Amino acid sequence: MNIIKGLIAREASGWSLAAAILLIVLGAAALVAPAVTSFAAVTVIAWLVIVGGIAHLLSAFGSDTFRSAVWQVLVGVVYFVAGVAIQSHPLWSLASLTLVIGAAFAVQGVLAIAAFLVAPSPDRSGWMLFNGIVTLVLSWVIWSGWPVTSLWVLGTLVGVNLLVTGISRLMLSLIARRIQGRFAGA
Questions:
Q1: How far apart are CA 84 and CA 5, in angstroms?
Q2: CA proximity to 25, closest of 163, 186, 178
Q3: Quick check: 50 and 83 in contact, CB under 8 A?
Q4: Could you give the CA distance from residue 63 to residue 45 in angstroms, rounded to a whole number?
Q5: Tens digits of per-residue pLDDT, 91-112?
Q6: 152 secondary structure, DSSP code
Q7: Beta-carbon contacts of residue 153 (< 8 Å; ≥ 6 apart)
Q8: Dihedral of the alpha carbons of 163, 167, 172, 173, in degrees to the nearest 10
Q9: Can you give the pLDDT at residue 185?
Q10: Is the peptide bond before 122 cis (omega within 30 degrees of 0)?
């Protein structure tokens, strides 16, 4: 039974290792071509919104009341039209999304700094202040170069996320293999 568990665990860690390598490659590719990644992300968002609109329209047929059906149709139409607009105007959509990201970073930065300032002395963490300052600087970088930053911000964020996720998964997979090797030898 332990042999079967070991084989299953080894196969699972193999798949995890393969996924990690794929994520690292995708993350690196996104960082090499952030504009392409940014537009790809906007395209995916547009299609998700369009599909969401279609889902709302279809759910109108299963509504219990006329009022609910009308609501589902209205929401579905808004989603569908928004998705088509995003798909039809990817540059404007990307610029708008970049502004939203910049604003979110500004709010997060201010809140992190405020949390640091109001925290009692023993609970203060320099890392909290550091996080707030770095996030505010990132917000300023996004806003100060807008709309040009729209071409690389989203793609860079996606790339960094994929790369860090892939590296983390790689390290966890390697640790899992090392642990399995120890149990197999025991």
A1: 49
A2: 163
A3: yes
A4: 27
A5: 999 999 999 999 999 999 999 9
A6: T
A7: 34, 38, 98, 101, 102, 142
A8: 90
A9: 62
A10: no
